[in-house]
Every structure is written in structure tokens, then in C-alpha cells.
Design a protein that fits this description.
Blueprint lengths: L9 E4 L5 H13 L6 E6 L4 H11 L3 E8 L4 E7 L24
Parallel strand pairs: 1-2
Antiparallel strand pairs: 2-4, 3-4
């Protein structure tokens, strides 16, 4: 799939947010997006565990695009591509550490 860059509705600099608040904030913002809107995350590490959570929680509803891949700054665009209707979660054996405690 070819990524389409969209002007983000929100830019979240996660480096300034306490770790336990990050994933709930991200999912709350994502849930508020209309199809065709996107948010951009800025982080100090690879947010791959968050990507796994998106696969589990919002499979078929998003497009994940790495805009910058470290080593000190990671920028990710998460675009809403569909509503939650009829989306099916994917079973994964490698879930996020401690239910979001990994600092996403």
C-alpha cells in the first residue's frame, strides 16, 4: 500500500507527556478523527508497540507511515482510512508491554 501524506489534524509531541498518559491520549485523538484525517506523533523512540496496539484495536481503520526513523526523533503519521464498522481485530502474540506502560 502506498502511503498518502495528509496534513495532520493534531501533532502530538509525546516527549513532553508522562508515559502512562500517552496511549490513552493517542487513541482518544485517533477516535476523534474523521476518515481522511490524520495525526502525527513525535517521539524519542520507535513506537512499534503502539503500532501493534493499533493493529489489535483498529485493524483496517488506519494507515501508519514512518516520516522520520530516529535515532533520536521518530515521526509517525497515523491516518484514519475507515470507520470502525465491520473492522476485525488481528490476533497477535506480541502485544504491547504491560498494557501501554512501554511509553508508546
Amino acid at each position: 500500500m502506498t502511503a498518502t501524506l495528509i496534513q495532520p489534524t493534531h501533532v502530538l509531541d509525546l516527549r513532553t507527556i508522562p508515559p502512562r498518559e500517552r496511549h490513552p491520549l493517542i487513541f482518544g485523538r485517533f477516535d476523534g478523527l474523521a476518515v481522511g484525517q490524520a495525526l502525527q506523533l513525535v517521539n524519542d523512540h520507535n513506537p512499534q508497540p503502539l503500532h501493534y496496539q493499533f493493529d489489535d484495536r483498529s485493524y483496517g481503520q488506519f494507515e501508519w507511515t514512518v516520516l522520520e526513523a530516529g535515532p533520536s526523533v521518530w515521526r509517525i503519521q497515523i491516518a484514519r482510512t475507515a470507520d470502525a464498522v465491520n473492522a476485525q481485530p488481528v490476533a497477535r502474540g506480541d502485544s504491547c508491554c504491560s498494557g501501554g506502560a512501554c511509553c508508546g
